[in-house]
């Protein structure tokens, strides 16, 4: 709701405990749906109990079995 107030045209997708594959899939879908190539994609990761993002630009997301966290580079989400 906070982002919608700042940018009413923003497309928002809430993902509860997503796996790395789900985040990749959703980011690619949002990129394809963007009206122009210059559009930006904001990835807001709010996780509790996960390691902090790494200095290499990796966020920690669940694996497919939800048994461990795996690092995912934000550059791989482009």
Q: Any idea what the shape is?
A: globular
The percentage helix is 10-25%
> Major sheet, described briefly?
2 strands, antiparallel
- What's the end-to-end separation, in Å? 25 Å
Beta-strand content bin: 5-15%
The strand line-up of the biggest sheet is 1-2
State Rg: 13 Å
Spell the H/E element sequence. HHEE
Counted by DSSP, the helix tally is: 2
Secondary structure tally: strands = 2
Summarize this structure briefly.
The protein has 78 residues and is of the alpha+beta class. The chain contains two helices and two strands, in the order H-H-E-E. The mean pLDDT is 83.
How is the topology of this model organized?
Layout: H1 2-6, H2 20-33, E1 58-62, E2 69-73
Antiparallel strand pairs: 1-2
Written description of the protein model:
With 78 residues, this protein is α+β, with helices and mostly antiparallel strands. A hairpin with a 6-residue loop joins strand 1 and strand 2 (69-73). Helices cover 24% and strands 13% of the residues. The radius of gyration is 13 Å and the shape is globular.
